[in-house]
Specification:
Helix content is about 60%, strand content about 5%. By secondary structure, it is mainly α. The protein has 3 domains: about 10-75; about 95-330 and about 430-460, no CATH class; about 335-430, no CATH class. Strand 1 (about 135) and strand 2 form a beta hairpin. It is an enzyme of class 2 (transferase). This is Carbohydrate sulfotransferase.
């Protein structure tokens, strides 16, 4: 089992952690000064004064813990001497993206792997990883689907090609049809004929799509553990509650239905660093580089969710799949409606099992908050159904209400909301845990050229504004 070797922290990592410390210090100082000013001016009281003193003590404790974390962080080979050490800011939405970027990213991945191949082997069993990688021997395609990175969209694309012989609107294909369709796997090819497999790999157009690592983690949490999902509550939620919660009640232990984001973050860290926890990892939450074994397979193209339209145009046309940018833009209009339908229909199908763990009204409120976390519904929009109405509302009623709420929302406001919900979620993570979380996700940041210093963690003014918003990630309020 390969683990990150304990070495001295690099300058980049030290600077990063000090940045975290500075941000936290400034935010907490603002809150502290507010309370002190109330005491001095007479608008506060003795209780507030004691709270301020206690708050400062807690801050000092967090500072000490972060300083200890800096000393113990690992240094990764080749980190400072390669492009991987540079901070990279993805192109803003609407800004033109170099169509050749998918090839440049692939070359960057290859260069990083040359220097860190052993460290980036990952913990996932290669056989399992290769069984998930789809191949098309006739068209000579190889695609590695990464969970929570448009993998369903791409499976619909492949289903359309295989079933109809042409590319139709992927959103017109039911999700269950695409996911259940039988596809050839790389493992199947490798087990048949080594010569044939090597020949295919040398000729195939191979690709994967990646996503900002922290964004992907939050998406996985919201989809599998926060929103009603009895399967994952039982599979992963019960394990997390039993391991990380002090004195959980019987319902929490049996159901695993109210895992906090902080508990989830601890689960992610231990899954990568604790040998005893490796067996409890789940591919929906493991690093992308490990899922696709990017240092063992030489991928030719690497697309990004953040520049999806441009990247998919380049990738699909490179695969000799004729598609226009106008088609991709047209299909993009179906993204929101498809997301709402998927988020709503599944909980209604699981209703009997969901109600064994929580009220139906609370369940639907979580679905609403999930849509808010995806910036489909504004944070200011309160849940529209009473307890009485929740018992009688149909899935179609909920879908129609959510879609109408989205259509009348201020789209520029929703764009800002995407960053707000990220800041909101990661503020709930223990300050001493955050450096470890970023340590285990560092390979994805480096390999795929993402900024390891994101605004939603380090923009002080922005974080102060987020403090004023209601936190939608508090599962105890549902």
């Amino acid at each position: 089992m390969l683990m990150f070797p304990p070495c001295r922290p690099s300058k980049l990592v030290r600077a990063f952690i000090l940045g975290v410390l500075t941000a936290l210090l400034l935010i907490t100082a603002v809150q502290f000064v507010r309370i002190i000013s109330e005491v001095i001016t007479g608008t506060g009281n003795y209780t507030q004064k004691k709270a301020a003193e206690s708050h400062l003590d807690r801050l000092q404790h967090e500072v000490d813990n972060l300083n200890k974390a800096v000393k113990n962080l690992p240094r990764f080979e080749g980190q400072e001497n390669s492009d991987s050490s540079r901070l990279y800011h993805p192109s803003p939405s609407g800004q033109s993206v170099d169509p050749d970027e998918v090839f440049k990213r692939a070359r960057h991945v290859h260069n990083v792997c040359l220097k860190r191949e052993k460290q980036l082997a990952g913990l996932t069993n290669s056989t399992y990883a290769y069984e998930r990688i789809s191949i098309d021997k006739k068209r000579k395609h190889l695609f590695c689907p990464i969970y929570k990175v448009s993998s369903t969209f791409l499976r619909r694309v492949l289903y359309s090609l295989e079933t109809y012989g042409e590319l139709k609107n992927p959103y017109s294909i039911p999700i269950e049809k695409a996911l259940k369709a039988k596809t050839d796997s790389l493992m199947g090819l490798l087990s048949l004929d080594e010569r044939q497999a090597n020949e295919f790999l040398s000729e195939a157009n191979s690709f994967l799509i990646v996503r900002e690592p922290l964004v992907r983690l939050l998406s996985g949490y919201m989809d599998k553990l926060f929103a009603p999902n009895p399967f994952y509550w039982n599979k992963t939620g019960t394990y997390i509650v039993s391991k990380y919660r002090s004195k959980p009640n019987h319902l929490e232990t049996v159901c695993g239905h109210n895992v906090t984001f902080n508990e989830f973050a601890r689960y992610i860290v231990d899954g990568e660093l604790d040998p005893k926890a490796v067996d409890y990892r789940d591919p929906h939450f493991t690093p992308a580089y490990d899922q696709c074994k990017v240092c063992r397979l030489n991928y030719g193209m690497v697309g990004k969710m953040e520049s999806f339209t441009t990247d998919m145009y380049t990738i699909l046309n490179n695969l000799i799949i004729n598609v226009t940018k106008d088609q991709l833009v047209e299909w993009k209009e179906d993204v929101v409606k498809d997301a709402i339908i998927d988020s709503v229909e599944s909980p209604f199908l699981w209703r009997p099992k969901v109600r064994m763990c929580m009220s139906w009204h609370s369940s639907l409120r979580r679905v609403w908050r999930k849509l808010q976390s995806r910036a489909i519904i504004p944070l200011e929009e309160k849940f529209p159904f009473s307890e009485f109405q929740s018992e009688r509302v149909t899935a179609q009623d909920f879908i129609t209400t959510a879609h109408f709420t989205h259509l009348r929302a201020d789209k520029s406001r929703l764009k800002r909301q995407k960053k707000e919900v990220l800041a909101m979620a990661y503020k709930t993570v223990d300050r001493s845990l955050l450096p470890k979380l970023l340590e285990v996700m560092e390979p994805d940041f480096t390999l795929f050229k993402y900024n390891i210093h994101p605004d939603f963690l380090f923009d002080n003014d922005f974080l102060v504004e987020v403090d004023k918003l209601p936190n939608i990630f508090d599962v105890r309020t549902l």
